Task: structure prediction
Amino acid sequence: MTRYNTILKRNPANPIIGPADFPYGPADQVFNPGQCMFEGKTLLLISVKMANEKYCRAHVATSTDGVNFEIEEKPLFEVDHDKEFGKLDNHPIDFRITQMGDTYYIMRPGNSEWGCIAFLYKTKDFKTVEPVEIIALPNNRVPCLFPEKINGEYVRLDRPYSVGAPYEKSFANIWISYSPDLIHWGRHRPLLKRDEFPWAGLKIGPTTPIKTEKGWLEIIHGVQNSFWSVRYSLGAVLLDLEDPSKIIGKMNRYLLTPETEYEHMGVVPDVVFTTGAIADLDKRRLRVYYGGADTCIGLAEGDLDEIIDGCLKGI
Ligand code: BMA
Result:
């Protein structure tokens, strides 16, 4: 069933990756992947949870056609309490990848007994990762770095919130902040409120911003109460290139919402969730690799200019 003709369209090969695609078993859940272009290929960083393990591990997968992926056997992230961030560093999911020159920064949350902490890693080869620093206090699982300095500073988007507190949801909005060195962050300012989106009354969260000629394209996820639980959808916002604290466009409709069996049915029902998107600027296309029901990965694609215009017109 489709409700209306959303700008993002599902690839006919969906779901493109599921638990059965992992060479060793028994896999139970596949989450939304980190996504970027690497050495001319599409690269996904995929979290998979084995049925007999508590936490995920994460594998690099690459593709030349963007649909068929080869999954590396050795995980890039797995829970290892002897590593730099030790016991704080559990459950690698929800990677936000930002390319700056030949360095790829990977933001990932770590669900620890101290709350959910934001770890920054970096890599140049996706074979090994180097820990940079913990760059947010709990509970903050989502810092998203802009891919270049703006007016001499690094910039990021956040969605801080307090897990479990009765007022939790009132904090689930998007903020912007600035840093001279990627380690020290400040001048935090609110940017976007969840209730600005009719399909996201409970929470919104950012993805890695994408530079376009008309502004920073920011795909967001949003969460809304539904009859039996909650529904996760995706939307789009456009930020000013010179001053990303200025919102210059915002789609009121969602770009994608759960409508297929693999989005409705899974370990967490009614979820389409992403931490990024890939813009093919020459082809004017946007590709979004998203998690379906926390059990598989789908690909949804759309016309970049239609999305940008949709933001500017506020459709
Ligand atoms: C979010 C993220 C996503 C997940 C969603 C629904 O907080 O952790 O990975 O798809 O919850 O469970």
